[in-house]
Amino acid sequence: MIEMRKVTKNFGVNGEPAVADVSMQIESGEFVFLVGPSGAGKSTLLKLIFCEQQPSSGRLYFLGRDTARFRTGELLKHRRRIGMVFQDFRLLKQKTVFENVAFALEVIGRSAREIRMKVPAALVEVGLAGKASAFPGELSGGEQQRVGIARAIVKDPLLILADEPTGNVDRDNSRQLMGLFEKISLGGTTVIIATHAWDMVDRMRKRVLALEKGRLVRDEQRGGYSDES
Which residues pair with 210 in a beta bridge? Predict the structure, then answer.
């Protein structure tokens, strides 16, 4: 699905690399953790995959296509294939749970009929069937993140990118959210999670890509958060 060949992304014109000489492959349906200290390049790597940023050098391929060659229409199509989940939820506070999830379909031009069918199904999948009429301010942090996940999956993405998705929830909610991501992955969706949640990484034993100062220093199947895990 994703292939990087010596990808580097610099800060500014002559700045230090945020990502340096990264080469790796991620296959369809994989569950991958990106780990490393703050500033290691995890968020930059996600932005490169989403094509929010372009490499300063090297090549990034998605489904065999060089992302640097995407035209505007192809870029929009690429982003529609990806569901994004954020640490700070990024929900629209004036909209209900249903409306927040529906918005992800509205912006890509889906019909009202499809929205009426798909949004309730997404809410059921994340365990929020009874919260459709609630507003974000009426929800717990864990529930708000579940809305974020529902918004990501409602458009049937090929790939989920999650940037510190458990950073603003407690340990019990973190465990539940990670279980939800695992369930999504088992359904065939590729999941890539940037995280500092070492206990979750150690417990789940998925593939781990470890970054340090922008460089990929470890690629381990069924890995832990650190080399000693």
Answer: 35, 218
Quote the domain boundaries for residue 128.
Answer: 91-156
For residue 145, which amino acid is it?
Q
How far apart, in Å, are the Cα atoms of 54 and each of 7, 38, 48, 95, 139?
10, 21, 6, 33, 36
Residue 135 lies in a domain: yes
76, 141, 73, 136: which is closest to 101 by C-alpha?
136
The pLDDT of 66-84, averaged and rounded, is 96
**What is the chain's Cα-based Rg?**
18
Whether pLDDT at 185 is above 90:
yes
In this predicted structure, what is the pLDDT of residue 76? 94
Number of domains forming the structure of the chain: 1
Token pair listed for 218 = 């470890």
User: Quick one: tokens of 176?
Assistant: 């539940």
Collect contacts of 113-121 with beta carbons under 8 A, ≥24 apart. Answer: 118/154, 119/150, 119/154
pLDDT, residue 115, reads 98
Cα–Cα distance, 143 to 177 (Å, whole number) = 10
Distance of CA 213 to the CA centre of its chain: 21
Question: What's the pLDDT tens digit per position in 16-51?
Answer: 899 999 999 999 999 999 999 999 999 999 999 999
